[in-house]
Amino acid sequence: MALATLGGLGAWAAPLMLKGSTALHVLTIADGGSGTAPQRAVGQRMAERHRMRAVDLVLMAGDNLYDRGDPAEAEAKFQRPYRELLDAGVPFHAVLGNHDILTGHGVPQLNYAPFGMQGRWYALRRGPVEFFMIDTNRDAAWQHQMPWLKKALAASTAPWKVVIGHHPLRSSGLYGDDPRAIARLAPLFRRHGVQLSISGHEHHYERSLPINGTTYLVVGNAGASLRPVLPGPRSARAVSTYGFTELSFTDQELQIEAWNSLGERIDQARIASSGSG
Fold first, then answer.
1. What is the mean pLDDT of residues 31-48?
2. Fewer CB atoms < 10 Å away: N or C end of the chain?
Protein backbone atom coordinates (compact mmCIF):
# COMPACT_ATOMS: atom_id res chain seq x y z
CA MET A 1 0.00 0.00 0.00
CA ALA A 2 1.33 3.40 -0.94
CA LEU A 3 0.60 6.72 0.71
CA ALA A 4 1.59 10.15 -0.52
CA THR A 5 1.19 13.41 1.35
CA LEU A 6 0.09 16.10 -1.08
CA GLY A 7 1.09 19.75 -1.10
CA GLY A 8 -0.99 22.83 -1.67
CA LEU A 9 -2.72 23.21 1.69
CA GLY A 10 -5.03 26.19 1.63
CA ALA A 11 -8.55 27.34 0.83
CA TRP A 12 -11.42 25.48 -0.85
CA ALA A 13 -10.27 23.50 -3.86
CA ALA A 14 -11.80 20.90 -6.14
CA PRO A 15 -10.74 17.30 -5.40
CA LEU A 16 -7.90 15.92 -7.46
CA MET A 17 -8.70 13.31 -10.08
CA LEU A 18 -8.34 9.83 -8.65
CA LYS A 19 -7.51 6.57 -10.38
CA GLY A 20 -10.27 4.05 -10.79
CA SER A 21 -14.05 4.15 -10.87
CA THR A 22 -17.07 3.78 -8.57
CA ALA A 23 -16.45 6.94 -6.59
CA LEU A 24 -17.80 7.48 -3.07
CA HIS A 25 -17.72 10.86 -1.34
CA VAL A 26 -17.88 10.84 2.47
CA LEU A 27 -17.58 13.43 5.25
CA THR A 28 -16.60 12.26 8.72
CA ILE A 29 -16.80 13.99 12.11
CA ALA A 30 -16.74 13.19 15.81
CA ASP A 31 -17.33 14.96 19.12
CA GLY A 32 -19.53 17.50 17.41
CA GLY A 33 -22.79 17.46 19.32
CA SER A 34 -22.23 20.58 21.39
CA GLY A 35 -24.65 23.04 19.80
CA THR A 36 -21.90 25.66 19.92
CA ALA A 37 -20.82 28.26 17.38
CA PRO A 38 -17.79 26.15 16.34
CA GLN A 39 -20.04 23.18 15.59
CA ARG A 40 -22.39 25.36 13.53
CA ALA A 41 -19.40 26.78 11.61
CA VAL A 42 -18.17 23.27 10.84
CA GLY A 43 -21.67 22.33 9.69
CA GLN A 44 -21.75 25.32 7.36
CA ARG A 45 -18.42 24.35 5.81
CA MET A 46 -19.64 20.79 5.35
CA ALA A 47 -22.72 22.10 3.55
CA GLU A 48 -20.56 24.26 1.31
CA ARG A 49 -18.46 21.24 0.42
CA HIS A 50 -21.64 19.35 -0.44
CA ARG A 51 -22.68 22.15 -2.79
CA MET A 52 -19.36 21.87 -4.59
CA ARG A 53 -19.62 18.09 -4.91
CA ALA A 54 -22.50 15.98 -3.66
CA VAL A 55 -21.81 14.07 -0.45
CA ASP A 56 -22.99 10.45 -0.36
CA LEU A 57 -23.02 10.08 3.42
CA VAL A 58 -21.74 11.52 6.69
CA LEU A 59 -20.14 9.28 9.31
CA MET A 60 -20.12 10.29 12.99
CA ALA A 61 -17.56 8.60 15.23
CA GLY A 62 -19.36 9.18 18.51
CA ASP A 63 -20.15 11.77 21.17
CA ASN A 64 -22.96 12.77 18.88
CA LEU A 65 -24.87 14.69 21.59
CA TYR A 66 -23.21 16.34 24.58
CA ASP A 67 -23.28 16.03 27.49
CA ARG A 68 -25.46 13.00 28.12
CA GLY A 69 -26.39 11.69 24.68
CA ASP A 70 -30.05 12.67 24.96
CA PRO A 71 -31.91 12.88 21.61
CA ALA A 72 -34.24 15.41 23.24
CA GLU A 73 -31.41 17.87 22.53
CA ALA A 74 -30.95 16.83 18.90
CA GLU A 75 -32.69 19.90 17.45
CA ALA A 76 -29.99 22.27 18.70
CA LYS A 77 -27.03 19.88 18.63
CA PHE A 78 -27.62 17.90 15.43
CA GLN A 79 -30.52 19.05 13.26
CA ARG A 80 -29.69 22.76 13.30
CA PRO A 81 -25.92 22.49 12.65
CA TYR A 82 -26.41 20.01 9.77
CA ARG A 83 -29.76 21.30 8.48
CA GLU A 84 -28.67 21.83 4.89
CA LEU A 85 -27.20 18.35 4.57
CA LEU A 86 -30.24 16.76 6.21
CA ASP A 87 -32.64 18.72 4.00
CA ALA A 88 -30.67 17.54 0.97
CA GLY A 89 -31.27 13.94 2.01
CA VAL A 90 -27.65 13.13 2.87
CA PRO A 91 -27.74 10.08 5.17
CA PHE A 92 -25.88 10.12 8.49
CA HIS A 93 -24.56 6.99 10.20
CA ALA A 94 -23.17 7.07 13.74
CA VAL A 95 -21.53 5.00 16.43
CA LEU A 96 -21.89 5.50 20.17
CA GLY A 97 -19.35 7.52 22.14
CA ASN A 98 -18.85 7.58 25.89
CA HIS A 99 -21.20 10.56 26.32
CA ASP A 100 -23.84 8.90 24.16
CA ILE A 101 -24.39 6.00 26.56
CA LEU A 102 -25.16 8.24 29.56
CA THR A 103 -28.85 8.37 28.64
CA GLY A 104 -30.54 4.98 28.54
CA HIS A 105 -27.25 3.23 27.81
CA GLY A 106 -27.41 4.66 24.31
CA VAL A 107 -30.70 3.00 23.38
CA PRO A 108 -32.48 6.33 22.67
CA GLN A 109 -29.78 7.14 20.10
CA LEU A 110 -30.05 3.67 18.57
CA ASN A 111 -33.74 4.41 18.11
CA TYR A 112 -33.18 7.94 16.77
CA ALA A 113 -33.61 7.33 13.03
CA PRO A 114 -31.53 10.30 11.74
CA PHE A 115 -28.40 8.73 13.29
CA GLY A 116 -28.78 5.72 11.01
CA MET A 117 -27.57 3.19 13.58
CA GLN A 118 -28.45 -0.41 12.82
CA GLY A 119 -27.35 -1.63 16.22
CA ARG A 120 -24.46 -1.10 18.60
CA TRP A 121 -22.29 -2.50 15.81
CA TYR A 122 -23.11 -2.94 12.14
CA ALA A 123 -21.62 -2.88 8.65
CA LEU A 124 -22.40 -0.60 5.70
CA ARG A 125 -21.36 -1.43 2.13
CA ARG A 126 -21.37 1.62 -0.12
CA GLY A 127 -19.76 1.37 -3.53
CA PRO A 128 -16.12 0.31 -3.18
CA VAL A 129 -16.11 0.65 0.63
CA GLU A 130 -17.35 -1.42 3.54
CA PHE A 131 -17.61 0.47 6.82
CA PHE A 132 -17.53 -1.52 10.07
CA MET A 133 -19.17 0.58 12.77
CA ILE A 134 -18.24 -0.66 16.25
CA ASP A 135 -18.91 0.05 19.91
CA THR A 136 -15.67 0.82 21.78
CA ASN A 137 -17.18 1.91 25.09
CA ARG A 138 -15.96 0.53 28.41
CA ASP A 139 -18.94 -1.82 28.69
CA ALA A 140 -19.02 -2.90 25.05
CA ALA A 141 -20.06 -6.52 24.59
CA TRP A 142 -16.78 -7.63 23.03
CA GLN A 143 -17.62 -11.29 23.60
CA HIS A 144 -20.33 -10.85 20.96
CA GLN A 145 -18.90 -8.01 18.91
CA MET A 146 -15.48 -9.54 18.20
CA PRO A 147 -16.79 -12.77 16.61
CA TRP A 148 -19.09 -10.63 14.44
CA LEU A 149 -16.25 -8.30 13.43
CA LYS A 150 -13.88 -11.17 12.60
CA LYS A 151 -16.51 -12.88 10.47
CA ALA A 152 -17.64 -9.66 8.76
CA LEU A 153 -14.08 -8.59 7.89
CA ALA A 154 -13.20 -12.03 6.59
CA ALA A 155 -16.32 -12.13 4.41
CA SER A 156 -15.92 -8.63 2.97
CA THR A 157 -15.01 -8.36 -0.71
CA ALA A 158 -14.82 -4.55 -0.69
CA PRO A 159 -11.65 -2.92 -2.08
CA TRP A 160 -11.70 -0.71 1.04
CA LYS A 161 -12.30 -1.80 4.63
CA VAL A 162 -12.80 1.03 7.12
CA VAL A 163 -13.39 0.52 10.86
CA ILE A 164 -15.09 3.31 12.82
CA GLY A 165 -15.27 3.45 16.61
CA HIS A 166 -15.25 6.30 19.08
CA HIS A 167 -12.06 5.55 21.02
CA PRO A 168 -8.76 5.70 19.10
CA LEU A 169 -6.22 2.93 19.10
CA ARG A 170 -3.46 5.43 18.39
CA SER A 171 -3.30 9.12 19.24
CA SER A 172 -0.85 11.85 20.19
CA GLY A 173 -3.47 13.67 22.26
CA LEU A 174 -4.57 13.67 25.89
CA TYR A 175 -5.21 9.92 26.16
CA GLY A 176 -2.47 8.67 23.86
CA ASP A 177 -2.23 5.14 22.46
CA ASP A 178 -4.55 2.52 23.92
CA PRO A 179 -2.50 -0.68 24.39
CA ARG A 180 -5.57 -2.81 25.14
CA ALA A 181 -7.38 -1.66 22.01
CA ILE A 182 -4.23 -2.12 19.93
CA ALA A 183 -3.83 -5.69 21.22
CA ARG A 184 -7.48 -6.47 20.53
CA LEU A 185 -7.93 -4.87 17.11
CA ALA A 186 -4.63 -4.13 15.36
CA PRO A 187 -3.84 -7.80 14.53
CA LEU A 188 -7.33 -8.12 13.07
CA PHE A 189 -6.80 -4.99 10.96
CA ARG A 190 -3.56 -6.40 9.61
CA ARG A 191 -4.94 -9.88 8.93
CA HIS A 192 -7.94 -8.61 6.99
CA GLY A 193 -6.39 -5.60 5.26
CA VAL A 194 -8.19 -2.75 7.05
CA GLN A 195 -6.72 0.33 5.38
CA LEU A 196 -8.37 3.02 7.53
CA SER A 197 -9.45 3.36 11.16
CA ILE A 198 -11.51 6.42 12.15
CA SER A 199 -12.18 7.60 15.71
CA GLY A 200 -12.92 10.61 17.88
CA HIS A 201 -12.72 11.03 21.68
CA GLU A 202 -9.52 13.07 21.35
CA HIS A 203 -10.53 16.66 20.52
CA HIS A 204 -8.16 17.35 17.64
CA TYR A 205 -7.41 16.20 14.09
CA GLU A 206 -4.69 13.64 13.48
CA ARG A 207 -3.60 11.36 10.65
CA SER A 208 -1.02 8.71 11.35
CA LEU A 209 1.59 7.34 9.06
CA PRO A 210 0.51 3.88 7.86
CA ILE A 211 1.10 1.31 10.60
CA ASN A 212 1.11 -2.28 9.30
CA GLY A 213 -1.03 -1.11 6.41
CA THR A 214 -3.57 0.88 8.45
CA THR A 215 -3.87 4.68 8.57
CA TYR A 216 -5.41 5.96 11.80
CA LEU A 217 -7.56 9.10 11.66
CA VAL A 218 -8.72 11.08 14.70
CA VAL A 219 -11.54 13.45 13.75
CA GLY A 220 -12.78 14.62 17.17
CA ASN A 221 -12.64 18.29 16.21
CA ALA A 222 -16.22 18.91 15.09
CA GLY A 223 -17.47 21.10 17.95
CA ALA A 224 -16.45 20.10 21.47
CA SER A 225 -13.79 22.14 23.26
CA LEU A 226 -10.45 21.58 21.60
CA ARG A 227 -7.44 20.12 23.38
CA PRO A 228 -3.77 20.60 22.51
CA VAL A 229 -1.92 17.92 20.56
CA LEU A 230 1.81 17.40 20.11
CA PRO A 231 2.61 15.35 16.97
CA GLY A 232 4.34 12.08 17.77
CA PRO A 233 6.81 10.01 15.74
CA ARG A 234 3.98 8.21 13.93
CA SER A 235 1.96 11.35 13.20
CA ALA A 236 1.78 12.45 9.58
CA ARG A 237 -0.30 15.48 10.61
CA ALA A 238 -1.73 16.57 13.97
CA VAL A 239 -3.41 19.90 14.67
CA SER A 240 -5.83 21.33 17.22
CA THR A 241 -8.44 23.19 15.20
CA TYR A 242 -12.16 22.80 14.53
CA GLY A 243 -13.10 21.09 11.30
CA PHE A 244 -14.14 17.93 9.45
CA THR A 245 -12.54 15.34 7.21
CA GLU A 246 -13.44 14.48 3.62
CA LEU A 247 -12.85 11.04 2.10
CA SER A 248 -13.01 10.43 -1.65
CA PHE A 249 -12.85 6.75 -2.65
CA THR A 250 -12.52 4.90 -5.91
CA ASP A 251 -11.86 1.18 -6.20
CA GLN A 252 -8.15 2.01 -6.48
CA GLU A 253 -7.48 5.14 -4.43
CA LEU A 254 -8.54 7.14 -1.41
CA GLN A 255 -7.97 10.85 -1.01
CA ILE A 256 -8.10 12.26 2.52
CA GLU A 257 -8.67 15.99 2.93
CA ALA A 258 -9.09 17.72 6.28
CA TRP A 259 -10.67 21.18 6.46
CA ASN A 260 -10.94 23.67 9.28
CA SER A 261 -14.00 25.72 10.21
CA LEU A 262 -12.82 28.57 7.94
CA GLY A 263 -12.79 26.33 4.87
CA GLU A 264 -8.99 26.04 4.80
CA ARG A 265 -7.42 22.71 3.96
CA ILE A 266 -5.20 21.57 6.82
CA ASP A 267 -4.21 18.14 5.52
CA GLN A 268 -4.27 16.09 2.36
CA ALA A 269 -3.02 12.60 1.50
CA ARG A 270 -3.65 9.87 -1.01
CA ILE A 271 -3.67 6.12 -0.32
CA ALA A 272 -3.65 3.34 -2.88
CA SER A 273 -5.79 0.30 -2.11
CA SER A 274 -4.02 -3.01 -1.60
CA GLY A 275 -2.75 -4.43 -4.86
CA SER A 276 -3.40 -1.30 -6.93
CA GLY A 277 0.24 -0.20 -7.03
1. 98
2. C
Q: How many CA atoms lie within 13 A of 59 on its CB side?
A: 32
What would the pLDDT profile of 101-117 be if each residue is shown by its tens digit? 999 999 999 999 999 99
Residue 106 lies in a domain: yes
Q: How far apart are CA 253 and CA 215, in angstroms?
A: 14
pTM for the complete prediction?
0.93
Determine, yes or no, domain membership for 124. Answer: yes
pLDDT mean over 218-236: 97
* Phi-psi label, residue 149: left if phi above 0, alpha if psi -120 to 50, beta otherwise: alpha
Domain count, the chain: 1
Is there a domain that residue 16 lies in? Answer: no
Could you give the 3-state DSSP secondary structure of residue 109? Answer: helix
The 10 Å Cβ neighbour count of residue 151 is: 10
For the purposes of burial, counting CB atoms within 10 Å of the CB of 209, is it exposed (0-12), middle (13-18) or buried (19 or more)?
A: middle
Q: In the structure, what pLDDT confidence band is assigned to residue 2 with cuts at 50, 70 and 90?
A: very low
Residues 203, 173: contact at Cβ < 8 Å? yes
The CATH number of residue 124's host domain is: 3.60.21.10
pLDDT tens digits, one per residue of 170-215:
999 999 999 999 999 999 999 999 999 999 999 999 999 999 999 9
pLDDT at 3: 42
Q: Which amino acid is at 164?
A: I
The answer as to whether 38 is a domain residue is yes
